[in-house]
Amino acid sequence: MLPSMLFFLSAILLAPFFAALILKVKAFFAGKKGPPLLIQYYTLIKLFQKGSVYSTSTTFIFKLGPVLSFCCALSALMFLPVAGRPALFAFRGDVILVLYLLALGRFFTIAAAMDTASPFQGMGAAREAYFPIICEAAMFLILILLYVLTSNLQIKAFFQGGQPLLLWHKAGSPLMFVVIALFIILLTENARVPVDDPATHLELTMIHEVMVLDHSGPDLAFIELGSFCKLFFYAGLVARLVWPFETGVPALDLLLFFLALLAVYVAVGVMESVMARYRMDKVPKFVLTSFALAFFAVIVTLELAK
Amino acid sequence: MNYIDTLLSLVLLSILFSFGSSRLPVLIRVIGFQGVVVSGLPLFIGNDHSLGGMAFSLITILIRGLVIPLCIYLIIRRVAIRREVAPIFGHHASMLAWLGLIAAAAFIGNKFTLPVATQNVLLMPTAIALVSGGLFLLMGHRNAIAMVLGYIMMENGIYLVGTTFSSRTHHIVEFGILLDVLAGVMIMAIILQNIKQTFDDVDTDLLQTLKE
Predict the structure, then answer these.
(1) What is this model's ipTM?
(2) Domain ranges in chain B?
(3) Is pLDDT at B206 greater than 60 in this prediction?
(4) Would you list the domain boundaries of chain A?
């Protein structure tokens, strides 16, 4: 229990660091020095020291949104087997709970955005509600695939210990597609570049950023930290699949896991540097690709299982 | 999971690429890749490892993977002004069609009783998906070059079925078909040039204006 607790806390503490890494990679590609690696911590501390400003048109939902979405991201992180170690909680069917915890967080972000009565926020909320629907379909197809392979519905059975390696042995090529599909889901769910540009300044083109425009101070800090945790959660899953090997030496395993995690974040950063954001009508096509890949992986696996 | 199935699943995925892309060079590369995989397979799954068989397979790889795509690429250089070919079906419809096609091919593929038993479960589904995918390309395009490519994809599928049917006389028959295809591609190239000379485009809709 105690090690799991420590891993959970270290995941929260490290999430802003990894998020800053993306900025660093982007700066490197642009030929700039970039912000320091601890920039997100400074931002969070600065935001927590500020006060909040609330519009008169908002209700308690607006104040509730950031806290709830942050809590949802944290509770999802409690189920993540960091570095393949046992997570804080694990029970049968916990995958579905985690997926809906993340969806609940999104719901409250959307509700808070609608609460501001700003047309831009409503627009962002509509987009935020639309794209993850396709993601959810893809995610459940991946779950079906993992269930076929392990006949178990626990995160533990997919990502803990030597389980990822076992998955690769059972169905190597479908899992290759699953990794790509998961990466696309990661980009979409966390509003990264081909889907949404976190650094944009024009409300009309934003998805996630426009929804949090009216939040300030500690509320904004909660939202930021929550999104770092969410990104860490997805990156942790992808990293486990990318580096499924276990050496048997705990310290080395931990190091290798964080290296794999680093690779995933760098991949996100490279993606953001070499690609432009898609036009709004092209985004569903991109997200649908992950669905097609997952669907394809399921069909191939079902064929192989015969 | 062996590497042949991995290759075959990549071929299946390449069908999606050909549905989704609207650029001719991409389509040609997809066709070339399929040709290489499809004609290289007999080297691995057949029992015939004689020198003649190997030579036949290598020549097939050369023709399917290099000569035919190169021919079509040269045609494009000669005739096509636009390299963008917009399919009639939209992106989402094509993707949905692909998913349905894969599912149907996987379902039908297992109903066949093959003369040669094979461990590669994806062989028949891939062959069926290639044939019907080629048909879909043929239906979904008005551009004559894209139609030729659809035809070649269909042919790839037929060849893949052929590899399982006969193990003995297989190469002679296949080689005969291959020469037919090559001749077909050349004839199509000439026709394409003629269409281009008459109409200044390779859109087959323009052929409707032809009168006696």
Answers:
(1) 0.74
(2) 3-209
(3) yes
(4) 2-301
